[in-house]
Amino acid sequence: MDLSTLANLAEIIGVITVVGGLAFAVIQIAHFRQQRREIAAIELARSFQNPEFARALRLVLDLPEGITAEELRSRDARLQDAAMLVSLTLESIGIMVHRRLISLEMVWELMGAVILHAWDKLRPWAEDIREEQGRQKFDEWIQWLAGQLIQHEDLHAVAPAYERYREWVP
Asked: 130-145, pLDDT tens digit by residue?
């Protein structure tokens, strides 16, 4: 084998090594993104399983339709605290969906209908707070998330899990 052949062979091996390294990097990035989504989904589920959030959510879902900020304040301080806790939690979820850290489908599966119901209860309160503070950004991500869930509701309007996965085998 002459020197020219060895140089060509070394060049081919170098190209194959670079291409292999790039392929490996792409695969690792894909695995990292998938792992990040899975961790975000676990954290999302944990945020709903927090006893304090569960109590706050129950209080919010029990609010009368159309309750204003003033009516909420006059009832009980715990109600406003509950509204704020639910609001902040759902606001975070909206941002995570928008940044594609968690999928809209995952949110829908975990508690899409509950989010829509909570937004129906909190919307008048949030609109009052926006007006009082002169800031339209209050609860902006909950409103966006609820809009996305409503807009894509037809994609999720399928049979419940106990019917869809009746034949599922571990």
From this structure: 999 999 999 999 999 9
Kindly state the greatest CA–CA separation across the chain: 92
CA distance 107 to 133: 30
Tokens of 38: 């899975």
CB count in 10 Å sphere of residue 119: 23
Radius of gyration of the chain from its Cα atoms, rounded to whole angstroms: 25
Measure the CA–CA gap between 72 and 83, rounded to whole angstroms: 9
Task: Report the candidate in 25, 149, 125 with the shortest Cα–Cα distance to residue 75.
Answer: 125
Q: In sequence order, which residues have a C-beta less than 8 Å from that of residue 155 and are 6 or more positions away?
A: 105
Query: Helix (H, G, I), strand (E, B), or coil: what is residue 16?
Result: helix
Which residues contact residue 94 at a Cβ distance below 8 angstroms, ignoring those fewer than 6 apart? 140, 141, 142, 144, 145
Q: What are the residues whose beta carbons fall under 8 Å from the beta carbon of 139, sequence distance 6 or more?
A: 87, 91, 122, 126, 129, 130
Task: Work out the pLDDT band at 24, boundaries 50, 70, 90.
Answer: very high
What predicted TM-score, i.e. pTM, was given to this entire model?
0.74
